Amino acid sequence: MRAEPTANPEFSFIVHPSEIGGKEQIYELEADSVQREALARRFDLLEIESFKARMALNRRHDGATLRLLGVVKARVIQRCVVTLEPVENDVEHRFESFFSEENHSDRNEVTLDDDVEPLDGDVLDLGEIASEELFLALDPYPRLPGVALTDFLPQADFEDDNKHPFAALAALKGKK
User: Fold this and answer.
1) Is-above-0.85 flag for pTM?
2) CB neighbour list of residue 104: distance below 8 Å, 6 or more residues apart
3) Which of 17, 26, 48, 126 qualifies as a cystine partner to 13, CB 3.0-4.6 A?
């Protein structure tokens, strides 16, 4: 599952696959403060303090498939799911993606491997891919160190069997 791309990506870096020869191309991207702020809004984060990506793009032996190998690194501030206080998280996420340049206008004739995404024209947005990978790598349930949900729940006293939450069910079981 990927984050929904936007019509105008906040962090965009376009490459044209037709310009990729047989040699591996290396790309190093870094989001500026405006881009980080926009991505933080998109991903419902308090802040993205830093966001970098390093990617290598090359052609597979078939010539029509591109392989993108990369790593995204970021420092993000999320909300603790228990206290809603800020939580700083360092993200480092490695990924590998494949893209096909073949004409896929007739989907009935072509069966793509599930791991290969079709390209729409001669455009590959490495910035948007890096953004999506960052989104996938975020902790879905960030918590402050040492904070547990049970710390904020009322404590039940189960020492008396009659106060046990399943005591009524146990009583019904004996009435068969």
Assistant:
1) no
2) 110, 112, 118
3) 126
Both tokens assigned to 24: 């591996």
Cα–Cα distance, 71 to 126 (Å, whole number): 12
Residue 25: φ, ψ to 5°: -110, 135
**Gap between the Cα atoms of 123 and 14, Å rounded:** 6
Distance separating alpha carbons of residues 15 and 29, to the nearest angstrom: 12
Taking only the tens place, the pLDDT of each residue in 118-161 is 887 889 999 999 999 999 999 999 999 888 777 666 665 555 55
**Would you mind telling me the total number of residues written for the chain in this entry?**
176
- Cα–Cα distance for residue pair 176/174, rounded to 1 Å: 6
Burial class (CB in 10 A: 0-12, 13-18, 19+), 145: exposed
